[in-house]
Design goal:
Helix content: 25-40%
Strand content: 5-15%
Shape: globular
Number of strands: 9
Largest sheet: 4 strands, antiparallel
Distance between the termini: 14 Å
CATH class of one domain: Alpha Beta
CATH architecture of one domain: 3-Layer(aba) Sandwich
Order of helices and strands: EHHHHEEHHEEEEEEH
CATH superfamily of one domain: DD-peptidase/beta-lactamase superfamily
Radius of gyration: 16 Å
Strand order of the largest sheet: 6-7-8-9
């Protein structure tokens, strides 16, 4: 493992929050408190639709499409998934996230302070723990991990925020899958199976199973053109360094 900068400095990680929320939902699925195919969100939608941004909900609510028609990136969908866990467990989602994911992974610097779609504050040290979990799962089974990192509802088109329309726009359950997307925020040399998430705060995490590598960046610089330019170059430099 190599690090740079103050790995314990805490910053908001914005939509990287969605990965943690998805892990908590998947723990609840394994416990039997919720089911991926139970109704959740708008009519016809399921928990699986919500986690894979295929429910038809818009960014902050409102139904834009029938479920399974397009990939519509949605904070509201992830919030609805967290609400389903609250209903199924009878436990406040913030508490459930702590008990099911954060404490088992030793993510002591990480707190959910707002929306389960974007409200986590964390550190690089803790996101390294998350990256390790995404690489070799411990809080969920290997079978559930394979399901989460496999494209849900293949062939859907949609927009990757900041990088435009992608056809197809592949997503798993709570994570984005690189596939054949271009342009993209991961490295040009990343394998198509690479998966992860980035946030508007300028933070990201990706895991490349083929390379056996993970990369995470934590910053308080708002996502803008600098990230579009720098992230692929940084990722490629890491791939090249460890090739």
């Amino acid at each position: 493992m190599a690090t740079h900068g103050d790995a314990d400095h805490r910053v908001p990680i914005a939509s990287v929050t969605k990965v943690l929320t998805a892990l908590a939902v998947l723990v609840a699925v394994e416990e039997g408190s919720v089911d991926l195919d139970q109704p959740a969100g708008p009519p016809g939608s399921t928990l699986r639709h919500l986690l894979s941004h295929a429910s038809g909900l818009g960014l902050d609510g409102g139904v834009l499409n029938p479920p399974g028609r397009r990939r519509v990136y949605s904070n509201a969908g992830i919030e609805a998934a967290a609400a389903a866990v609250e209903d199924g467990t009878g436990i406040a989602f913030r508490t459930y996230l702590r008990e099911a994911v954060l404490d088992p992974l030793g993510m002591t610097a990480t707190t959910l302070d707002g929306s389960p779609a974007w409200g986590v504050t964390s550190s690089a040290t803790d996101l390294v723990a998350l990256a390790r979990e995404l690489h070799r799962p411990t809080v969920i089974s290997a079978e559930t991990h394979r399901l989460a990192t496999t494209v849900a509802y293949p062939g859907l088109t949609g927009v990757v925020p900041g990088f435009g329309r992608q056809d197809p726009n592949d997503w798993g359950l709570g994570i984005e899958i690189r596939g054949a997307k271009h342009p993209h925020w991961t490295a040009p040399g990343n394998d198509p199976t690479t998966f992860g998430h980035f946030g508007r705060s300028g933070s990201f995490v990706w895991v490349d199973p083929a390379a056996g590598l993970a990369l995470t960046v934590v910053t308080d610089e708002t996502f803008e053109q600098w990230a579009i330019d720098a992230w692929p170059r940084l990722g490629q430099a890491v791939l090249d360094a460890f090739a």
